[in-house]
Amino acid sequence: ATQKSQGAVITCTCGKTKIKFANRVPRTSLECCCSDCRQALEWAASKGGPDPPAVPQWVYFENDIAGDVEGMEHLQPYVLRRGACVTRVVARCCHTTLVA
Q1: Separation CA 57–CA 85 (nearest Å)
Q2: Distance (Å, rounded) from C-alpha 59 to C-alpha 19?
Q3: How many beta carbons lie within 10 A of that of residue 74, not counting itself?
Q4: What are the pLDDT digits (tens) for 46-76?
Q5: Max Cα-Cα span within the chain
Q6: Do residues 17 and 69 lie in contact, with contact meaning Cβ atoms separated by under 8 Å?
Q7: What 3 state SS string does the chain have?
Q8: Cα atoms found within 13 Å of the Cα of residue 14, Cβ hemisphere only
């Protein structure tokens, strides 16, 4: 019997929220030093979230969520400011940015 490979999992800092993806391999990843990325992570940190890294690293997966999202009730979409191009999703339990 062949064992099915497990997909990627992103988890908030406190572990109450998990999003599982069918594919383990990300579509792409990048480092971003734009003011929006830095300010968004600084905002989350000011609310009790993890300290923002000097250079934010983002990993993008296909929209292939596998199964139920654990802790869905903790997820909150937000935009940094009116007219912003990116909607981020933060786990309110610990203010970890999970999706951007």
Answers
A1: 18
A2: 13
A3: 20
A4: 999 999 999 999 888 887 888 889 999 999 9
A5: 53
A6: yes
A7: CCCCCCCCEEECCCCCCEEEECCCCCCEEEECCCHHHHHHHHHHHHCCCCCCCCCCEEEECCCCECCCCECHHHEEEECCCCCCCCCEEEECCCCEEEEC
A8: 14
